[in-house]
Amino acid sequence: LERLNARGRPQALDVDGRYGFANLWRAEVNYRTERYGLAVLESERAVALAPRCAWVLAFKARMQASPGYFEEALKSINLAIRLDAHKGWFYSWRGELLRKTGKLHEAINEFSRAIDSNKQDSLAWAWRGGARLKLGFVNSAIVDLKTALKLDPHYAWAHSELGQAKRKAGRQDEALKHITRAHCLDALFLWAYRGKDDSQSYEEAMSDLRQFLKIKPRCALAHAWLGRMLCQEGDEGLAMAHLNEALSLDSEMALVYVWR
Hints:
This protein is mainly α. It contains 16 helices and no strands. The chain is 73% helix and 0% strand.
């Protein structure tokens, strides 16, 4: 990242300012370092250079979803599918965006289309299992999540969701094994922390986010979530400190300005 940003622009763009894929790779670097606002900005530049490239639009949708711009991401992936309806993973990604916006039945339909297109798509199996779990279809969720883990045994999110499903099925020992496995696979795996579990209290959620920040103190998104929770709990001073820290790490996170 330092090499890419040392001169304000990466060398590839100094040589050819219209090389859109250089913007995509810089977006990916920002995405992997939790600078989600900057990732969105770079992906928008890439789309401006290649507005009819379905893959670039799908990439932009992925970047937009990271800071929570789900409606904008859905518009991007819908356009990508209109341009190229034959890529199964486009449907998988649209399903995940629908799942995140609470449209669970529609999401399941999209995941099923992706699976019909490619039975080896571990993400589609896992995400369909997650959607079914939210709807309370615990047994079918367990089947989907087990299938995902057969295809990709190192998928931490699937282990975490399968742990939650088995907990709801009353299989506590098995649930603990999968949740522990999620942490072992990725100690920085934020979704495995209960801070994103709607069944937890604010106190428990904030405790888990603080624990995560001890491991990864420069995660802008975790600071933003914690700041928002603290504000809702009435601790405005500490909330402002975390929101300010989030913006110092990623100044393009527009929602944080709203929360602040």
